Amino acid sequence: GESVGLHLPTLSVQEGDNSIINCAYSNSASDYFIWYKQESGKGPQFIIDIRSNMDKRQGQRVTVLLNKTVKHLSLQIAATQPGDSAVYFCAETRSTGSGGSNYKLTFGKGTLLTVNP
Amino acid sequence: DVKVTQSSRYLVKRTGEKVFLECVQDMDHENMFWYRQDPGLGLRLIYFSYDVKMKEKGDIPEGYSVSREKKERFSLILESASTNQTSMYLCASSSPLWGDAEAFFGQGTRLTVV
Q1: Out of A42, A44, A103, whose CB is closest to B101?
Q2: Interface with A, mutate which of B102, B107, B109 (most A CBs under 10 A)
Q3: Which of A27, A54, B94, B97 is deepest in the core (most CB within 10 A)?
Q4: Does B56 contact chain A (CB < 8 Å)?
Q5: Which residues contact A20 (CB under 8 A, 6 or more apart)?
Q6: Count of CB atoms within 10 A of residue B74's CB?
């Protein structure tokens, strides 16, 4: 069935290292992808997005890479800091088929990133 | 500052009770969503709405219903709460524009059904 999933449920890195969080998706019709960060006790917060007509997008310390050939998405965090410790979710957007611009967001299961000082 | 507000952070209800979870957004967004979040399962979509009085089933609608009488408010209803509905419930809203789908989330409501 259609799904958005993650390769690794947990990731532990040293402060200052780069982090890479991976995500696989199975619906080739999805054309917009988002990474969210969820800190303990809070709702998910938007980090960065990418459209399917792109293969790379950069933000502040974060980069998202999209490989449509293998349906793979990754989030790279440069110089990881303790404040980056959180659960990271990838999400895909696809149309509901009910017309217009209606769509729904489907989330992966999340990766817990722990940054060690 | 954009805001999605869920009426309760924590709720404890008894099995069989009717439960209302309320969500209000102040961004004039057309789209609103209800998810539940469980360990190891991530966020799963229960219902969503793309207009007032409109709703669509998500991936796990069984045991739930929703109400969207006003644009800013989206309610999730558990008609008869059961223990397997103990979970974290997250509300979100977003713009309806295709490809501009950033969703803003509330803080979540942790519901315990005993």
Answers
A1: A103
A2: B102
A3: B94
A4: yes
A5: A74, A75, A76, A77
A6: 29
Q: Is B71 helix (H, G, I), strand (E, B) or coil?
A: coil
Q: Is A104 on the interface with B (CB under 8 A)?
A: yes
- Beta bridge mates, A4: A25
- The vertex-A24 CA angle with A79 and B94, nearest 5°, equals 80
Q: How does pLDDT run across B7-65, given as a tens digit for each residue?
A: 999 999 999 999 999 999 998 888 899 999 998 888 999 999 988 988 999 999 999 99
Q: Are A93 and B108 inside 8 Å of each other by CB? A: no
Convert the pLDDT of each residue in B34-49 to its tens digit: 999 998 888 999 999 9
CB A34 within 8 A of CB B102: yes
